[in-house]
Design goal:
325 residues; alpha/beta; two-stranded antiparallel ribbon; disordered C terminus; 14 helices; 6-stranded mixed β-sheet; 13% strand
Amino acid sequence: MNGMNTAMQFSLRRIVAATLLFALGLTLASAARAADSHPLPLWKVGNGQGQHLYLAGSMHALSRADYPLPEAFKQAFKQSNLLIEEINLNVISPGEVKKAIQSFAVLPEGNTLADAMGEGWDKAQKLAGKDGVDLAPYEHYKPWFAAFRISAKQFREQGYVPSLGLDFHFAGLAQQRDMPIIGLETISEQLSFFNSLDIETQRHFLLQTLEGLSKLRDELMRLHAAWRVGNLEELSAIAQSDFAKYPDLRTELLEKRNRGWMPTLERCFRNGKTCFVVVGAEHMAGEYGLIALLREDGYRVEQLTTTSYTVPAPATAPPAKTSAE
C-alpha cells in the first residue's frame, strides 16, 4: 500500500478525529512512566447469551512509541474471527484511490484553489505563509481536500504516522491470519460526505485548518492522551464543540453513519461471529455514539482496562520535513 493510501486514510478522518481540541487535565511525561490501572479505548459488547464483540476506538495516526499495544488488545483480537473497519484496507487499490480523488476532490479543469477560495484567498495565503506552508501543491484541489492534505502532512512532521494507526495495524494482523475483513464504507462514500459540503463551509474548513497549525503539537498531545484512556465524556464534549458551527455536518458524519453501521455490528451476534471492530474513537462517544446505541438496543457494554500500562513520550518529529504530496 503506497504513501497516497496511508495519507488518504488519515486525512479522511481529520475533521472528525485529528482536529478534536480539548484540555483533559492529563499531561504526557517526557519519558515513559508506569501507572497502576487505566481504562482503554476498547470495549466488550455482550448480548447476554454468551456472545460478544469488541469495539476498538482508533486514533488514525500513532507513533512507534505506542507499540506494543496493551495486552487487552492482543487478547481481544486473538479471540475474534472477523475484523470490521471503516474501509477494508486490504483490498483498496492505488487506482481506486486515484479515481476517487479525481472524482470528488479535484477542481474542474481551469479552476484553481484561489478561485474556489474567492475573497478568502488572501487570508489563506497569509496564514499559510505565517507557518511556512506552501499552498502551490494544493492548487488543483477543492478547499476541503486541500485542508486534509495539509493536515496530514503536518501530522507526519510531528511524528504521527498514518500507517501506525490502529486501522492499519489490525488490518495487517488480519492479513497475516487470513482473517476476513468487512469494510463499513467505500472510499468513494467517505469522500462524498465531504464533497457535499457547500463552498462557503469548505472555505471555512481550510482557513480554520491553517489558523490551527501553530497549536498543532499541543493539540496532538492532548488528543493522544485522551485516546489512550478512552475518555468518552471528553470526546463527546469536544465533538459538540468542534461541530458547534456545523450541526448538520455532525449529523451526517457521526450520527447517520453510526446508525448506518449498527445492522452490520448486530449481524455479528446473529451469525455467531466474534467481531473485532475498529473505527474512529469519536464514533464511540455521545448520545448517538456506538456505545449509547448498543446499550439502547439492550447490549451490555464494558470498557476494558489494563494494569500494565505505559504512557509513552510524545511523538518525535522527523529531522527533515517531507515535501507536500
